[in-house]
Structures are given as structure tokens and as C-alpha cells.
Amino acid sequence: MNEASDINSLWFLKPGVVEWIMPLMILDVVLKGFALWQAAKRKQLYWFIALLVVNSLGILPGIYLYLYYGKQNNK
């Protein structure tokens, strides 16, 4: 197989892929940033570390925000 056919077979260069990957990437960054901000504000170190280290495509930040967003900060 030559280099030209290798490049053409890459899935991320297929038409339409960027249209659905980019919004998911943006959503992941937004959710992760917001969840990290909330965890830092509440001084929840373990959640902050987990959210920072684990790349879960928005699943872990979504779970965190579902559990804690809107609840009062227990000091």
C-alpha cells in the first residue's frame, strides 16, 4: 500500500466526521471546565483530580454536575 492510499483511508479525513466530532469536543471542554470550576469552588480535591485526569468524553463531568450543581456548598 502506498502513502496516498494510507492517507485516504484515515477515518478522520472522511467527509462529515468533523461536523459531529467538533461539537462533541467543544461540549467536553465546556463540561470539564465548568465541573472543574465547581469542584475547586467547593474544595472537593478528589473530584477535581478525577475530573482533571480522567478523559471521559463529558461523562464524568456530567455526573459530577448532576450530583452537585445547584446544591449548597457545605462548609
Describe, in short, the structure shown.
The protein contains 4 helices and no strands. It is mostly helical and 75 residues long. The chain is elongated, with a radius of gyration of 18 Å.
Characterization of the model:
With 75 residues, this protein is mainly α. The protein has one domain. 67% of the residues lie in helices and 0% in strands. Helix 2 packs antiparallel against helix 3 and helix 2 crosses helix 4. The longest helix has 25 residues. The protein is elongated and about 50 Å long. The termini are far apart. The model has no long low-confidence stretch (mean pLDDT 81).
Q: Residue share in helices? A: 55-70%
Proportion of strand residues:
under 5%
Number of DSSP strands?
Answer: 0
How many helices in DSSP terms? 4
Largest sheet: none
Mean pLDDT, nearest integer?
81
List the helices and strands and how they pair.
Elements: H1 3-8, H2 17-41, H3 45-53, H4 59-68
Helix pairs in contact: 2-3, 2-4
Give short descriptive properties of this protein.
75 residues; mainly alpha; 67% helix; elongated
